[in-house]
Amino acid sequence: MSNPFDLSGQVAVITGSSKGIGRAAAEIMASLGAKVVVSSRKADACEAVAAGIKKAGGEAIVIPCNISDKSQCQNLIAETRKQLGPVDVLVCNAATNPYYGPTEKMPDEAFTKIMQNNILSNIWLINLCLPDMRARKDGSVIIVSSIGGVRASTVIGAYCISKAADMQLARNLAAEYGPDNIRVNTIAPGLITTDFARALYEDPKRRAAREQATPLRRLGAPDDIAGLAVLLAGKAGAFITGQTLIADGGTTIGG
User: Fold this and answer.
1) Percent of the residues in the chain that have a pLDDT greater than 90, as a whole number
2) What is the number of structural domains in the chain?
3) Beta strands of the chain (E only): which ranges?
4) How far apart are CA 13 and CA 106, in angstroms?
5) Domain for residue 252, yes or no?
6) The domain that contains 188 carries what CATH number?
7) Which residues span the domain enclosing 156?
């Protein structure tokens, strides 16, 4: 039986892949045969990741993209098609959270930025990949959400709203695109030790409390999430769509 996790020949675009979860996903997908597009705002950081993938025997190219700019999103998908071919796997991982604090004090521009970068940009990228995926009746879209989408927060409320919206976006698009064999899912990580989440765990007391409240008694690592992206990208996840896979060490179940 063929390896259900084999991604040989698949073209995978991963936003926000110069570090953290995106980088881990790019590295593991490349190790399983995917042709990976490493993308974030900073080209030099992307080049370092791509160089590491190539050194390990994988295939990767760099196409910088600021997801807040629609024209850059268009260029990302167009250049991918030009250099590698149509996109088979799209991982919408890049996101933003410029505000920590109560909702009543949040500036309108912060809320608008969060909604555009964490929801609208995903719609742009997915729609750009849709024609090719529809034409060949195959494709996988993975949105990196957060357990913030299923829990309340007094400090990152707008971010949590955006992540809940991503879950609903996946359900809607899974229903719309399912007849064309295009799968759309989200992954909802718990607290992962990335630069993006540093403000939530860098204080030792806060980290210890979070670890104690997590059944596995630890925070997550980027590789903990990257494996799920592989599952959803290939044959192993061929019958999964419209779902949110929570990977949080058990935080949301308590205990």
Assistant:
1) 88
2) 1
3) 11-15, 35-39, 59-62, 89-92, 139-144, 182-189, 244-247
4) 33
5) no
6) 3.40.50.720
7) 11-246
Q: In terms of DSSP H, where are the helices of 20-156? A: 20-31, 43-55, 70-83, 108-115, 121-136
Kindly list the catalytic residues.
Answer: 159
Tell me the three state secondary structure of residue 65: coil
* Per-residue pLDDT at 194 exceeds 80: no
Comparing 145 with 207, the larger pLDDT belongs to: 145
Give the mean model confidence (pLDDT) for residues 122-138: 98
pLDDT digits (tens, 9 = 90+) for 74-120: 999 999 999 999 999 999 999 999 999 999 999 999 999 999 999 99
- Please give the C-alpha separations between residue 143 and each of 46, 169, 174, 187, 228, in angstroms, as whole numbers: 20, 9, 12, 6, 11
- For residue 32, being part of any structural domain is answered with yes
Flag whether 220 is in a domain. Answer: yes
Q: Is residue 6 part of a domain?
A: no
pTM above 0.90, yes or no: yes
Give residue for tokens 């860098």: 202
